[in-house]
Amino acid sequence: MISPDEALELVIRTAAPLPPAEIGLDDALGLVLAEEISADQDYPPFPRSMMDGFAVRLADAGKTVPIVGEAPAGSVWSGELTDGTCIEILTGAPCPPGAEAVVPKENVQRHDMLVHLPATIRPGQSIAPQGSDCRQGQRVLGPGQIVAGMAIGTLAAFGRTSVRATPLPLVAIIATGEELAHAGQPLRPGQVRNSNGPMVSALVREQGLAPPRQLTVADRLDTTADALEACAEADIIVLSGGVSVGTYDFVPRALEQFGAETVFHGVNQKPGKPILFARRGRQLIFGLPGNPLSCHFGLHRYVAAAIRRLSGRKGHPQVFRGALADRIEIKGGRVNFLPGHAVPTESTGGWRVELLAGASSADIFQSCTANCYVELPAVTRTYENGTEVQFTWMGCASRSDE
Ligand code: AMP
Ligand code: MG
Q: How many angstroms does the Cα of residue 271 sit away from the middle of ligand 1?
């Protein structure tokens, strides 16, 4: 059986970035750019006043001069400034030809349409010269960079309404299980609620992706295979349950019928050993065990890596080291993943990680405030409180703000 590290590498190697597309600026947040972005013109496009004040000539320092015009932002004062005159100018307005400095309003004495200027005025004071932020044609962003909020501002300033970027993948979820009750219905004996479907959907949306299509199917070969066919448009199909070797575990057989090629089935980890990863053409398919905690880790560790790769990002998750806040005994044989809550320690600048559930818990209830998972190697060992361990960040947690 392969190790969790080998499994992660296989996912990352199999998942190639989606072809770039032209995407509207409103939908580009968080995407990876696939083009060079350079300034369409000089910024600022004109010498810009940086203060509310008066555009002046240096020769008039210490003198009283008349105000011969006004330039609010968004307008152009069409004259040329000459010695012995000034204009009132507001922040963001173009300085007229002849203006050598802007003297802030608070540094002059004004009497009606006359202003007394200070004795010293620095050349160019409070004027941002044309092109001082950025020259026309200057490269500002490029392929591989992420369109963060600041980048959206830059693109909008450059007049862009769309960009070429790697789109986000589409995900579909198929929850398998005869025992799954439909949402909102009372539980009949033997039934459980489908918590994996909504959880996977939430975790996928947390990555910025569109809400996935969700299907639920009974434990039958034909219904499972039909559900796979119904997800033709998805880049990633996530199945929950039915992936092990039980009589009613139809996912491996349905995938065979679907024509998918298995990349791996079974990873030496706890929980989540039966996890399956397959591909059909460009589609990636994950069979996650139905046990909610296994499903959760499978999603965070492997599906999230595939989402990142398809989106043009690096596949590997962010890994940190921190001190365990608890003592735990680990049985060897399989790599252990444990839900945890990591908190920065003020004194050392490091992390302290609290474990949220016993190593054997199959469910998510005790760990629903987790913000990370701890990875402990496949060796029998007792970890004392304070032992440094590796953990992977999973994102914000359902805790009150600390
Ligand atoms: P399976 O992987 O199909 O053998 O399921 C393992 C365990 O997870 C069983 O106890 C199932 O009832 C439970 N389970 C399967 N699918 C879901 C689901 N969608 N939501 C919650 N629990 C599930
Ligand atoms: Mg099942």
A: 13
CA distance 201 to 39: 39
Distance 176 CA to ligand 2 centre (A): 6
Mutate to test the pocket of ligand 1, among 192, 200, 288, 293 (most ligand atoms within 8 A of CB): 192
Encoded tokens for 119: 């004795």
Model confidence pLDDT, tens digit, residues 67-100: 999 999 999 999 999 999 999 999 999 999 999 9
Could you write out the DSSP letters of every residue in 112-140?
TTEEEPPS---TTTTEE-TTSSB-TT-EE
- The two structure tokens encoding residue 58: 């240096």
Report residue 10's pLDDT band, with 50, 70 and 90 as the boundaries: very high
Nearest to 58 by CA among 145, 146, 143, 117: 117
Provide the mean pLDDT of the chain. 95
Relative to beta strand 32-33, strand 162-166 is antiparallel
The Cα–Cα gap between 361 and 297 comes to: 13
The closest of 298, 241, 285, 288 to 259, measured between CA atoms, is 285
Q: Structure pTM?
A: 0.91
Q: Which of 303, 310, 304 is nearest to 285 (CA)?
A: 303
pLDDT digits (tens, 9 = 90+) for 268-323: 999 999 999 999 999 999 999 999 999 999 999 999 999 999 999 999 999 999 99
Number of neighbours of residue 137 by Cβ within 10 angstroms: 10
Enumerate the H helices of 299-346 as residue ranges.
304-310
Minimum CA distance residue for ligand 1 atom 11: 290
CA 198 remoteness from chain centre: 20
